[in-house]
Write a structure and sequence with these properties.
The chain is an alpha+beta fold and 114 residues long. The chain is 21% helix and 22% strand. The longest helix is centred in the middle third of the chain and has 18 residues. The chain is globular. Bound molecules: 2'-deoxyguanosine-5'-monophosphate. The site of 2'-deoxyguanosine-5'-monophosphate has 14 residues, from strand 2.
Length: 114
């Protein structure tokens, strides 16, 4: 999608530290990490936000969680625990309009989130 930062990362038009890629997903380190491990898992398909997810995307979204799970294991944060976050819409703080799962770990998390 024209103008989308994450589509530009997908096309290697802007650099990112990529940690995983397959035919339907990409994962890379967040530019502004909020935890020792902070990785974004995105679909290659441009979906703006959770609100735009369609039934046909069910397996794609499940795949992203599966990928995040595998990365958490590789990062060594699986045992102690980690958090997956999807911000949806302005009030959630979503700032990039290409759906993404934040994988956060490596420190104790607080609840509720801010
Ligand atoms: P959200 O607020 O949920 O839309 O999260 C967007 C995240 O994307 C935020 O934590 C910062 C990260 N981010 C924004 N632009 C870039 C970029 O160009 N490269 C990388 N690696 N991360 C980015």
């Amino acid at each position: 999608m024209e103008g989308c930062m994450f589509c530009k990362i997908l096309k290697r038009e802007i650099p990112a530290t990529i940690v995983y890629e397959d035919e339907i997903s990409l994962a890379f380190r967040d530019i502004s990490p909020k935890a020792p491990t902070h990785i974004l898992v995105i679909p290659k398909k441009h979906i703006r936000t959770v609100v735009e997810v369609k039934e046909e995307d069910n397996s794609l979204l499940g795949h992203l969680i599966y990928v995040a799970n595998g990365i958490a294991k590789k990062e060594g944060i699986s045992e102690k625990g980690f958090r997956l976050v999807i911000n949806c819409g302005l009030e959630s703080g979503q700032s990039v309009w290409h759906i993404h799962i934040h994988l956060l770990g490596g420190r104790k998390m607080t609840w509720p989130p801010g």
